[in-house]
Structures are given as C-alpha cells and as structure tokens.
Design brief:
Blueprint: E1 2-5, H1 12-20, E2 24-27, H2 38-48, E3 51-54, H3 57-66, E4 73-75, H4 88-101, E5 109-111
Parallel strand pairs: 1-2, 1-3, 3-4, 4-5
Helix pairs in contact: 1-4
C-alpha cells in the first residue's frame, strides 16, 4: 500500500516495520509537511495518490466527511487502556488485514483498531 504517514505516527520503528512489510511509505517529514496544517497533509496525500495513516482521527474524519475524493484514511485511536491501544506491530498487522480483505480503501475512513486480529 502507498502510505503517507502523518506527523503524529512517523516513528522510525513504525516506518521500518511498514517498509519491511512491503509498503511504499512516505512520512510527513520526508514530504516537508511537519508542522503544517492537517488540511495540507490531507491534500498532499490526495495529490500523491497515497492512503493517509494517522492517529489524529478527529480532524481527518472531518475532512473525509467533507469529501470522499481521497485514497483512503487509516485512523488509529489511542485508548487509555493499554490492552485496547495499538502497538506498531498491531498497526502493521491491521493494515495487512485490510489489504487481505480486499475492502476498498479509496474514499474510506477505516479505523485500524477494528482490523486488529
């Protein structure tokens, strides 16, 4: 999957795991998007033809509701209960589960927490 990893999710470990899993990963930092408005990150993902991976679900679900003309948003919700929060390995596994299910990501907002199994 071609991913744009939002600034809030671009840890080196996660990026490495995603790359090792075969994903084409562009981070917000690599794209020169660190510190910019979330709308600019969203628009760049569209221009680049990339699915956006973010932990900032509130802003990006708003953008999704405004327009479904995007390549997909993968949201990771953080929970105060460590048993429900996702590790980097969980995130990579969940993305693999989405891919294997052949669910359309184009124009969708998918909560990765629901794809962790």
């Amino acid at each position: 999957m071609r991913l744009l990893v939002d600034e809030d999710s671009q840890s080196k470990t996660l990026v490495r795991l995603l790359t090792e899993a075969g994903h084409d990963v562009l981070t917000a930092e690599q794209a020169g998007l660190n510190g910019l408005d979330d709308r600019e990150v969203f628009e760049r993902a569209i221009v680049e033809g990339r699915t956006l991976l973010t932990r900032n679900c509130a802003d990006f679900v708003t953008f999704h509701h405004e327009s479904s003309a995007h390549h997909g948003i993968l949201g990771v919700y953080h929970d105060t209960d460590p048993m429900r929060s996702m590790t980097y390995t969980d995130i990579v596994r969940a993305i693999g589960n989405v891919e294997r299910s052949a669910v359309a990501t184009e124009g969708a907002f998918l909560v990765l927490n629901a794809w962790r199994w």
